[in-house]
Amino acid sequence: MRKIMLLVLALVILMGLTTTVAFAQDPERGKVVWTEEAFCQRCHGEMGEGVWGKPLAGDELTVEEWIAQVRSPRNRMPTFSEAQVSDDMIRDMYAYLTSLPAPTQTGFQDAGLAADAHPGQVLVVEKRCVACHTTTGPIGPFTSRNEMPTAEAVIAQLRNPKNRMPSFRENQVSNEEAAIIAEFLATQFTPQALPQSGSATAPYTMALPFLLGALLLAAGLGARQLKNRL
Q: How far apart are CA 27 and CA 34, in angstroms?
């Protein structure tokens, strides 16, 4: 019986050590994740002082509550999947942020919008899109693709985002609000015109395939003549 009790005790101690190693928190690693790898600081501030989101420096919540908030957030915070921010990354950031002193002054940043700002721009700020996309909103990706912003495209990106963007539920940004944001983005969009027939660049663009074909033909004839001479 004594041997069994000692064996059970040893197993309990071993399990405790394994759990401690698995859930170890590294504040130095957390600082790197916070400042360089995750997007959390864009809302919560470089030092966790709070910018567009609540202050997190010196936070009194538990690390389990942090993980729960990231996976199933309350209020306006978007949802991050484990592929975007792992539980270990959250634990390390938690260790770093809770080691910092709580800010003495808190308050959300003023976006400085004009009184007659477009309702879509107001939503960009209210929904915290401004943290990553500035007050112009996510117009850059549409411009780079030469794609007119539409409500459908904005909704698709909000619900099933590409790349590292977190997702927004409909009770956070409704489809109607997404359509208004798309209207605002459309006011900034200038399509990149393609060369048209009769334009200054069109003749050169249209002639390029013919010039290339002529060069290839000339090269082939030259090679054939050289072969015949040899």
A: 10
Kindly list the structural domains of the chain, giving each domain's residue range(s) and its CATH number in brackets, ordered by start.
25-109 (1.10.760.10), 119-188 (1.10.760)
> What are residue 167's DSSP bridge partners?
79
The set of residues, in sequence order, having a beta carbon less than 8 Å from that of 98 and lying 6+ positions away, is: 57, 58, 59
Residue with tokens 């539980």: 87
Token couple for 53: 């989101």
Which of 58, 53, 52 shows the shortest CA–CA distance to 96? 58
**Cα–Cα distance, 82 to 33 (Å, whole number):** 14
- Using the Cα atoms of residue 98, residue 100, residue 102 and residue 106 in order, give the sign of their dihedral: negative
55: phi then psi, degrees, rounded to nearest 5: -65, 145
Asked whether the CA dihedral 27, 29, 32, 34 is positive or negative, the reply is negative
CA distances from 215 to 74, 104, 111, 221 (A): 65, 73, 58, 10
Q: What is the CA radius of gyration of the chain?
A: 29
Residue 176 CB partners (closer than 8 Å, separation 6+): none
* 51-102 pLDDT, tens digit each: 999 999 999 999 999 999 999 999 889 999 999 999 999 999 999 999 999 9
Determine the pLDDT at residue 192. Answer: 84
